[in-house]
Amino acid sequence: MKRFAKSTLFFLVAVCFAWSAFFTDSFAQRRRSAGGGGSAQRVAENVTGDTFEYSAETPRGAHIRSVSRPRAEALRAIDDGLARLFAIARKNNYRARTNYFDYTIFIARPDRTQNGQGGYSPDIAVGAGQYGGSRYDQGGYVYAAGMVISLEPCAFVIAEHNRNWNRVSDAVRFEGEHLVLYHNDRARFQATLDHSRGGGGHPILK
Ligand SMILES: [Zn+2]
Question: What mean pLDDT comes out for the span 51-65?
């Protein structure tokens, strides 16, 4: 039990501490191309270096773009993460963006599949940005299990998994928290944006 709690904590810290650095970048990019040219797909491709050739929908209707044909287990895990997100959102009286079809999830090729402790941990490497030189910095980049790609429409990227589907559900639930907050409670969204500076970790919504 103790060991479980510890690994969960590692996950919570690692899941999207790079998020706000990335958010700043993508948001700036979106504003520059006010004509709407900066699509979520283009942002996802720029960040990951991947090409998302496959399209799918989860059984409950969330949109998927992926680097290879998504496995049924992955689609179910994504639905499960969204179901948990929507349930906790309702509990907090947040109604906006609580439909499966509101979300697009990009499944990218992982840049690592093991964490520093040797555990199965498919993650995406992203530019360190403001975290450069901090304890998160792995030499110009940091690892994240997921990150938000676009606030409107709601889109985020996770790494492709071939097991440990609970981790996929968690990443979906956690990245989705930022999007639900953005659309329902802007002050709380801002307050929880940066996990490295007192913004706390996940889960934010309880
Ligand atoms: Zn986060």
Answer: 97
Compute, in angstroms, the gap from residue 160 CA to the centroid of ligand 1: 18
pLDDT at 153 over 50: yes
Q: Give one DSSP letter per residue of the chain, joined into a string.
A: -HHHHHHHHHHHHHSSTTHHHHHHHHHHHHHHTTTTTS-HHHHHHHHH-----EEEE-TT--EEEESSPPPHHHHHHHHHHHHHHHHHHHHTT--TT-SGGGEEEEEEPPSEEE-TTS-EEEEEEEE-GGGTTSTT-SSSEEEESEEEEETTTEEEEEE--SS-HHHHHHHHHHHHHHHHHHHH-HHHHHHTS-GGGT---S----
Residue 150 lies in a domain: yes
Q: Which residue has the higher pLDDT, 189 or 11?
A: 189
Q: Is the pTM of this model over 0.85?
A: no
Q: Is residue 202 part of a domain?
A: no
Structural domains of the chain, count? 1
In a domain, 6, yes or no: no
> Could you tell me the distance, in angstroms and rounded to a whole number, from the CA of residue 177 to the centre of ligand 1?
7
For 46, the domain range is 37-197
Ligand 1 midpoint to CA 147 (Å): 7
| 154 CA to centre of ligand 1 in angstroms | 14
How many angstroms is it from 11 CA to the middle of ligand 1? 11
